Amino acid sequence: xxxxxxxxxxxxxxxxxxxxxxxxxxxxxxxxxxxxxxxxxxxx
Amino acid sequence: xxxxxxxxxxxxxxxxxxxxxxxxxxxxxxxxxxxxxxxxxxxxxxxxxxxxxxxxxxxxxxxxxxxxxxxxxxxxxxxxxxxxxxxxxxxxxxxxxxxxxxxxxxxxxxxxxxxxxxxxxxxxxxxxxxxxxxxxxxxxxxxxxxxxxxxxxxxxxxxxxxxxxxxxxxxxxxxxxxxxxxxxxxxxxxxxxxxxxxxxxxxxxxxxxxxxxxxxxxxxxxxxxxxxxxxxxxxxxxxxxxxxxxxxxxxxxxxxxxxxxxxxxxxxxxxxxxxxxxxxxxxxxxxxxxxxxxxxxxxxxxxxxxxxxxxxxxxxxxxxxxxxxxxxxxxxxxxxxxxxxxxxxxxxxxxxxxxxxxxxxxxxxxxxxxxxxxxxxxxxxxxxxxxxxxxxxxxxxxxxxxxxxxxxxxxxxxxxxxxxxxxxxxxxxxxxxxxxxxxxxxxxxxxxxxxxxxxxxxxxxxxxx
Lengths: 44, 465
Prior knowledge:
The complex is a heterodimer.
Chain A (H helix, E strand, L loop, with lengths): L6 H33 L5
Chain B lengths: L4 E2 L5 E2 L20 H12 L9 H4 L15 H29 L1 H25 L2 H21 L2 H7 L4 H30 L7 H22 L29 H4 L3 H31 L6 H29 L1 H24 L3 H30 L4 H8 L1 H23 L9 H19 L12 H5 L1
Antiparallel strand pairs in B: 1-2
């Protein structure tokens, strides 16, 4: 368990984290933008 | 790191792809990969909140442009969602302890099979025009997927984020609120794509959604990892002097049911949800009836969408806030602020302020979502980490109860008021006051919360077993 974590390992982990968040974040942002566009009708 | 597991009876074999032993994280694993894994599941099962988008098209499967004799009625279709929510509570209560044992990957994969499979079976039901198949498909099987998927990542997130358990579970459960915002426009797009002059396109939409949700949830199951038992966040040391309302002991799931704290928390969740869910179900009609001529059906749909957004944001905001101010204080805010806002709502109609009305409900619904997202961390504080998933599963029966109680309360009181000559614009006044009264009861339950008596704690030898 005391294995040293190399810089390369750290870099690939960071890329994985970014990709994973993009995978869930992009559909969510699309849903939010659609919702906000519809909600604007309430104040027109 | 070895992934070999010993089994009784001698010998050893490699753990299966879905086994807990297979997903123990290696040193250096970035824990921020776990919330997106949980979101993969919660963003999908959150679709349940948007199921009503299919109701109207499903009343015209035979008539296509309008409902004709032989078409399903809205009242019959309403049962699909109710059955799904009932089975969410049942499955989470029944499978919580098992899920804690088998780990999140197997649980998430089974949830994917049930939820995706529920859509595929429902597509057959639409194709054959047999409603009972949809009750079984989306309602029972999909409901099981909802329950298993909902609780599967909770304990994993709490163990990965002992320093911020509220924020971690808030992130995942936020997905459940956000799922509807994706599902609703996506379903409309798909139905538009598949519809023809002789066909409404619901069955094909169910097939596509079933496949997409299965894949998305399975990716979450592939990503998820559990920490090794000796892991803790870098630089984090457990507080030497734990807070009064945060235990360092564990309470067994069966023992938790013998404590008054479990039932107080059940009531706290049930009352908070009852107040919110009743309003969510009636939001469109309520906004139009309280502001006749000022809120169009289209604007009311926008209002419902806005509530979904605040439902989602509230889950992250309030759960994260609870890490700073404590769970009991967070719920105290929900009940006190909710009480004030429910009393204020009828006045927004009398002064004709749509903006104030929207603002009141935006905050109310943020606290409804916040209640869901804060409860896992509250359970962890009171009963410890070890059985939190299983205890959370059993507590979710409060959601099922509120799912029936809330809408019934709002709908029946409204009907009663209107049949007794109360104008529609004022028909919700009594309901709002009743909701406020429910919140007072919730506040009392929350203030009665105390740490669990040590006689319920897991003994050292049991804890090591």
